[in-house]
Write a structure and sequence with these properties.
By secondary structure, this protein is α+β, with helices and mostly antiparallel strands. The protein has a single domain, classed as 2-Layer Sandwich (Ribosomal Protein S5, domain 2). About 35% of the residues lie in helices and about 20% in strands. It has helices at about 10-20, 55-70, 95-105, and strands at about 20-25, 30-35, 40-45, 80-85. The radius of gyration is 15 Å and the shape is globular.
């Protein structure tokens, strides 16, 4: 995940929390806020101490960044997104994290619509 795709400042997080919409599944809570002033999406990750110690939290964040990088072409531009990690994610493998994250992002309507091509077969 490129540096330009990250939310960093507390003010940016607070703006998304206060004005954004939320969606959740068992592993993640997703907050989204449309921001037309930017060309790409930005994501912030929050993992509380309920997840574990600093080493565990950072490992979960690294895995989440890797999962996001794998699907970043499917995430809508012009969005600020916050991903809050719920307990239990620290024990999941990367493939499960990626699937659960994709599910949560779909619930939050942060995934682009899939284009279906009707091609004639010859």
């Amino acid at each position: 995940m490129h540096r330009s795709h990250r939310l960093r400042k507390n003010e940016e997080f607070q703006k998304v929390f206060q004005k954004g919409k939320s969606a959740a599944n068992k592993q993640f809570v997703i907050y989204t806020l449309e921001n037309q002033g930017q060309a790409t999406f930005r994501i912030g990750i929050s993992a509380s101490k309920k997840i574990g110690n600093a080493v565990t939290r950072n490992k979960v964040k690294r895995l989440l960044k890797e999962a996001i990088a794998a699907i970043e072409d499917r995430i809508k531009p012009h969005l600020d997104i916050i991903v809050i990690v719920r307990p239990g994610v620290e024990e999941m493998p990367l493939a499960s994290i990626q699937g659960s994250l994709m599910h949560a992002l779909k619930r939050a309507k942060a995934i682009k619509a899939v284009e279906i091509h009707n091609e004639k077969r010859g």
